[in-house]
Each structure stands twice: as C-alpha cells, then as structure tokens.
Design a protein that fits this description.
The complex is a heterodimer.
Chain A lengths: L1 H9 L3 H17 L6 H26 L7 H17 L4 H25 L4 H19 L5 E2 L11 E2 L2 E2 H19 L1 H11 L1 H6 L4 H27 L1 E2 L7 H11 L11 H20 L5 H18 L8
Chain B lengths: L2 E2 L4 E2 L13 E12 L2 E12 L3 E6 L5 H8 L7 E6 L2 E3 L4 H6 L2 E4 L11 H6 L5 E2 L7 E2 L1 H14 L16 H14 L6 E5 L7 H15 L4 E5 L3 H7 L2 E6 L2 E7 L5 H10 L5
Helix pairs in contact in B: 5-6
The chains are: A mainly alpha, B alpha/beta.
Chain lengths: 314, 272
C-alpha cells in the first residue's frame, strides 16, 4: 500500500501539484485577498516572463545542457530593444532586433559548448557576466523610462486579461506540443538522456546541441522583449538574479542536471508555484528577502530530491 | 591440428577465399588504425561470408572492438579498404555504415533509459507526419504497433512497448538492442554484436543466444565478438582470432576446441 502511494506521488509532477494546492490553500486561509480574480491574474501576469524564459532554460536542461546566462541575456535584449526604439526605429523592427540578439546569444553559447567543448556551466556563467557588463555599458548603467504606449504593449489587456497571460498559455501549448509530440522533442530527451547512445544512433550531437542553445536564445529573446515592455524602460539591472527563480521553478518542475528528464508542463507548475509563493509572502508582509531564502531552499530540495539514491537516503 | 609451417596457419579455414566461389558479404583488407603511439589494429584481413556467424575472439586489447567500430563507422580507418558485396565502400560515420547495411550493437547497448521500448527501436528513424524534418509530428501509435509486431516476429517478450527501457532487466535490454538493430535491416545485411551476453546470467544468455541463432537462420550475416569462448564456438560457423591488433587465424568453429582456441588467443602464432 505504502509502495503504491509512493509510486503515485513520485509520478510526474504529482508531488509538486499537491504542494502547490497545499500552499494555495494555506494562503487562501490566511489572506483575504489571495484567492481573488485580481490576484490570480496578477500571479499569472508575473509568471509570464519567468515561464517563457524558464521554458527555454528547461529545454536546454532536458537536452543535457545548462544555461545560466538567461537573466543577463534577457537584460541585454531589453536594453538593445529599448535603445533602438529610442533611436526612432519602428516598434516591430525593434522587437525583431531584440529577438535576433537573443538568438545570437544562444548561438554563441552553443558554439562554445558544442564546438569548443567548454563546460556549459563555465560558458554560461562567464557569458552571464560578459552580457551584464555589455548591457550596462550600452546605457552607461542608466535606467531610462520609455513612456510610449506602443512600447508598453505587454501591459495591454484583451478581454480583461493581460496580453502576457495569453502569451504564457500560447508558449506553454506550443512548447508542450513540441516536446511531447514532435521528433525534435524526442531527440531532445534522447540527447539529454544518453548523448553517447545518440551518437551511436547517427545523431549529430554537437550540431544538435548548437541548435538547442540557439532555440533557448529564441525563448530568452522573447522573454527579454516582454520584460522590457512590461517595465516600460531601458533597465540595465533587469534580469539580475532571475537565474535563481527560473532555476528553482524548472528544477521543481522535474528537470534534472543529468538531462533527459523534465517537462514544460512541470516548468509551468514550478513557475506558478514560485510566483504564488512570492505573492503570498509579500501579502503576509514578511520581509521580502525571505522569498530569496525560500527560493534557495526549494532549489536545493528539488535537486536533492532528483539526485536521491534509488533506495532513498539512509 | 596440423600446422602449415611455412605460413604458420592451420589447415583449417584460414586463407582468404578470393575467387573460389565463396560469397563474401563483407571483406576487410589491410585494415590499420592507431591511436597515437598505440597500434590498435594492424593490417587485418577479414572475410564475412553471406549468411554466416563469424566469431571474433582475442584478449583485452586485441583490437576486436576497434575493428568492429571501423566497420560500424564509429572509428575511421588509417589504412586499408572495406568491401561490401564486392564493392569498395567508404565508411566515415554511423550513417554511412547504416546506408551500407551495417548495424552494430555496442557492448553498452546504447539504449535510452528515459525513453520507452518503441522510442528506442525507432530512435533517429522516427515515423513522422505533417512538417518535414525534426518538426514532424511523431506517429506514436504506428511506431508502437510496428515495434510490437517486430518483437512478436522475433519471439521477444518484453510486455508493453510503452515500458521505459530503464526498468528492464539486462536480458530484456539486450533484446531491445537486437530488435532495434534488426528493425530496419534487410536479410542482406550485416549485424555486428559486441559482447552481447557479457553482463547476463546463464538463463538470459541462453535466450539471447537462441535469438542470435534464429535471426541468423533468416539469412542475416553476423559478426560476434565475445570473451565467452564456449558460446562463440557453439554459435559461430568460423572464428577469427586476434592478438595485439593482428589477425592470428581464422578457423572452422566446429573443429576447434575451447583449449585450442584459448591457445591461439594467448600464444598467437608464436609456437608455430
């Protein structure tokens, strides 16, 4: 009986879902304004950017890689998009330029990992600092508001729901379908699960990894232009520290450092979890830094759970 | 066993049989490969007859796996030529090998524990529809159906093709690896098996050996590398002995004892 319960709990994201429901229930019990329509929409709105970037992060992780440059990449994309907009370029072109910057960053990461064979932790950690420096330098560290309604498209609402919420669900649907139902998704799990076997199955693993990091760059680019629009500013400090929240959400959602495991659906639940947690803690007027502590603890717990020995810890 | 003192080779099947009507599906001539100062394979000739099982035996470091990896496209040859069906071919990677009908089952089986049986069988050759290339939608139902049919044809009982390979036993994993190698093979193809029963117990080894024998009877030509001499002698038609990267001898398995085989492996041509 206990074994059966264990099997059910450990299946996919059942444990996470249960924890999520328990947490929501607790905050609903404690707070008058937690489980309201307005607050629910706020949670979804604040989840959007984290989810879009988290989906890219998850896909790389499932494919056996790692990309810690996510926050800095989003920041540089936002800075470049804002700068070219302030220089007078039409908004659609600015958004395309932002996306190209994101894809280029992903491509560079992919080249360094797959062709130069440098450890992805080192590559993307180094890129995190390189990009942060570049982003700061591009605007001399200055934060500049952009008071243009067109630029702030991400703040618009359609049918009462913020545009970014629709984007969240659209990206979720596309990404879930891609990972579960296409050959690309199958190969991502294969290369992540056993890259040597993938080579022996005549899959060009190096070229595949290059493509994977470039795809992640596409996600980060999109998240970056969303973030810039939501902030309505050129903000060189945006994206800083986002790596922690994104990583926590993705590992909670079932991804593994070993690769070959995880899902976009799990990442979505993980993102909603950490966003709702931050929301609830803020409403409880506990010191905001506690959210960072909780995220750190959750990250360690999620990775420890993934790396637990088969028979459990003794 | 009488030895030809001039050539140091046995009277049994040891000479390449060019031009005598024997049908060779695979021929290797003068194959050499080094890794830095280490000569892994030196001037090896090999002939695989159509429809036979050729055992390859030798001590650790004899060059058996390197030679087979050359055939399977995992390692490039430094010198020598490869002929398939009498035609000279270039095998630069695994895709080339597959194109020429060569499939290899590696010692570690090269399976994906995080994917199910059907996914493992079709990996890299998935059936898709809709968009071209990697964006195509997986025809999962069709692949499961074909995987089930394949396992039934080979008399392999795995249970469901939706089972993750990671939970299968050693013998079952070996069966999946064999099924994957055969899924796209035609009878006029070459299967290379590297230590198929190395990690298996007696019962599972017997089951795998039965499967190897039965698939050979469909006409498949097989090269079998193994340390288990009795198994090789019971399965193979002929045995290639290697030592220190060189071909020692090729003998008819039926007339070779385990002791004689071990002597060849250990002493090579030294005592002739």
């Amino acid at each position: 009986m206990i074994r059966r319960v264990q099997e059910v709990l450990l299946k996919d994201n059942t444990l996470l879902l249960l924890a999520f429901i328990l947490m929501i229930s607790y905050f609903t019990w404690e707070l008058d304004y937690f489980f309201t329509k307005v607050n629910s929409i706020t949670i979804l709105q604040y989840s959007a950017v984290t989810f879009v970037s988290g989906a890219g992060f998850a896909i790389v992780l499932i494919g056996g890689g790692l990309d810690l440059s996510v926050g800095s990449a989003m920041m540089v994309v936002g800075v470049v998009t804002g700068k070219v907009f302030l220089a007078g370029l039409p908004l659609p072109l600015c958004l395309v330029i932002g996306m190209v910057v994101g894809i280029t960053i992903g491509y560079i990461n992919g080249l360094l990992v797959s062709k130069a064979r440098i450890n992805p932790l080192i590559v993307t950690l180094g890129m995190m600092f390189v990009l942060r420096g570049i982003g700061f330098d591009l605007v001399d560290g200055r934060h500049t508001r952009i008071r243009d309604d067109g630029y702030r498209w991400a703040r618009e609402r359609i049918g009462g729901l913020p545009v970014v919420v629709y984007i969240l669900f659209a990206v979720a649907l596309l990404s879930i379908v891609m990972l579960r139902y296409t050959k690309l998704g199958r190969l991502i799990y294969a290369v992540g699960g056993n890259p040597d076997a993938a080579r022996q199955a005549a899959i060009n693993v190096d070229r595949f990894r290059l493509g994977l990091y470039t795809l992640a760059g596409l996600y980060f680019g999109f998240a970056g232009i969303m973030l810039a629009s939501m902030l309505g500013a050129v903000a060189p400090n945006s994206g800083t520290g986002r790596e922690l929240v994104i990583a926590t959400a993705v590992f909670l959602g079932g991804a593994s450092l070993k690769g070959g495991k995880g899902s976009v659906a799990g990442t979505l639940i993980g993102v909603l979890f950490v966003t709702a947690l931050a929301n609830g803690v803020t409403q409880m007027q506990i010191i905001p830094e506690i959210v960072m502590v909780l995220n750190g603890v959750l990250l360690i717990a999620a990775v420890a759970f993934d790396q637990r020995p088969k028979g459990g810890y003794r | 066993m009488e030895l030809d003192t001039e050539t140091g080779q046995s009277e049994r099947e040891s000479e390449p049989n060019n031009g005598d009507g024997i049908d060779h599906i695979l021929e290797l001539r003068g194959i050499s490969r080094s890794f830095g100062p280490v000569e892994a394979v030196v001037g090896v000739d090999l002939e695989l007859r159509r429809g036979e099982i050729l055992g390859v035996v030798g001590d650790n470091g004899a060059g058996k796996s390197t030679l087979m990896k050359i055939v399977a496209g995992m390692v490039k040859v430094d010198e020598g030529e490869i002929r398939i069906d009498g035609q000279r071919v270039e095998i630069n990677d695994a895709q080339d090998a597959r194109r020429h009908g060569v499939e290899m089952i590696f010692q570690d089986l090269a399976l994906f524990d995080n994917l199910d049986v059907a996914a493992n069988i079709f990996i890299g050759r998935e059936k898709t529809s809709g968009m071209p290339g990697v964006l195509g939608f997986l025809q999962k139902r069709q692949m499961h159906k074909e995987a089930e049919a394949l396992l039934r044809r080979l008399n392999i009982d795995i249970g469901s093709t939706k089972t993750k390979v990671g939970v299968l036993s050693g013998g079952q994993r070996q069966m999946v690896a064999i099924a994957r190698a055969l899924a796209f093979e035609e009878s006029e193809s070459i299967l290379v098996m590297d230590e198929p029963s190395a990690a298996l117990g007696a019962t599972e080894s017997a089951t795998v050996n039965e499967l190897i024998s039965s698939i050979n009877q469909t006409g498949l030509s097989i090269i079998l590398i193994s340390h288990r001499i009795p198994e090789v002698l019971s399965l193979a038609h002929r045995v290639l002995v290697m030592k220190r990267g060189r071909r020692v001898d090729v003998v008819d398995a039926a007339s070779l004892t385990v002791e004689e085989c071990v002597n060849l492996i250990v002493q090579g041509n030294e005592n002739r």
